[in-house]
Specification:
alpha/beta, Zinc Finger, Delta Prime, domain 3
Length: 316
């Protein structure tokens, strides 16, 4: 979960609204949080609804720790990103809500990406929302509120998360010891402050940056070595999809830097001047970037990462 300091910095309206309402002992029975990375804020809200030690979540007490570990007995959690929310899931929620609370501090059901629910599931959910019970809270997240049925929206308190201020995030990363180049990279490949902070301290990510820069340099100046180097260096160190997806993001940034150079825009890889000597037409660069993004999308469905890398090398 994000720290309270991060939440105050990134989403001050969200934080202040909850703080003011809880201070007045006001609790809604249902909340809907719209935005990228919304579960980070949903977890903060869940802990704040349950925490017995502070007005908002303390992140230290037993209950806050249980929520972090997804082991709070009176919490039910479904993720619509992993699979669509079906009627059976809502019936399971309803059944559990009818039972006596084990912890005695309130029951909560959390549904991530509620827009990925079947019509039957939504109809069942509406029956629960239409008859709110004291001490039972619903927390939903979505990326696009326009895909959530108005009948659900009307029964929830809505929080629309504002997009992160990337300039502020870059400054924050630099203050914590991240180099300017790495801060540039992080704010261009992620919109999650938590992921940015994690990657900024990850040695493997540093290695991925080096591999991506080597790829760009080989492509423009030693193309005959490109296939061999990427197979022998990259794939010896990285065999998981998440790392390869990050690598693809990084080489997209490399080609964007060449495009930026053509159009007199500041470099992302600001510590590597060799990019200034890379020559390419804008149309060719855009085609390369589109090809890489297509390959990244296909990465989820292809079991053979070596073949994905071969396809990358021979498609650009």
């Amino acid at each position: 979960m994000k720290t309270i300091e991060q939440i105050k910095l990134e989403q001050p309206i969200f934080y202040q609204t909850i703080y003011n309402e809880f201070k007045q002992n006001k609790r809604n029975h249902a909340y809907l949080i719209e935005g990228h990375d919304a579960y980070q804020y949903a977890e903060f809200l869940v802990k704040s609804l349950l925490c017995q030690d502070e007005l908002l979540c303390c992140n230290r007490c037993r209950i806050c720790q249980q929520v972090s570990e997804n082991s709070y007995i009176d919490m039910i959690h479904y993720n619509g990103k992993e699979e669509p929310i079906k009627k059976g899931a809502i019936e399971a929620i309803q059944s559990k809500l009818l039972k006596t609370s084990v912890e005695g501090h309130g029951k909560i059901y959390v549904i991530e990406s509620i827009e990925n629910s079947t019509p039957e599931a939504i109809n069942s959910l509406l029956k629960i929302l239409e008859e709110p019970v004291e001490g039972i809270y619903a927390v939903f997240t979505c990326e696009n509120i326009n895909r959530v049925l108005p009948t659900i929206v009307s029964r929830c308190q809505i929080f629309r998360l504002k997009p992160l201020n990337m300039g502020l995030m870059k400054d924050n990363l630099i203050e914590q010891g991240t180099t300017e180049e790495k801060a540039n990279i992080l704010t261009h490949i992620s919109s999650s402050s938590v992921q940015m902070l994690e990657l900024s301290k990850n040695d493997s990510f540093n290695d991925l940056i080096i591999e991506a820069l080597n790829f760009i340099e080989d492509y423009y100046f030693k193309k005959e070595n490109l296939a061999l180097n990427v197979q022998t260096n990259l794939l010896k160190k990285f065999k998981d999809r998440d790392s390869i997806a990050l690598f693809l993001d990084l080489i997209v940034l490399g080609f964007k830097d060449v495009l930026n150079k053509n159009n007199h825009i500041d470099q992302i890889f600001c510590d590597h001047d060799f990019i200034l000597n890379c020559q390419d037409e804008d149309e060719a660069l855009i085609e390369k970037i589109e090809n890489i993004l297509t390959i990244k999308n296909d990465l989820s469905y292809n079991a053979n990462i070596a073949l994905i890398i071969d396809r990358l090398v021979y498609s650009i």
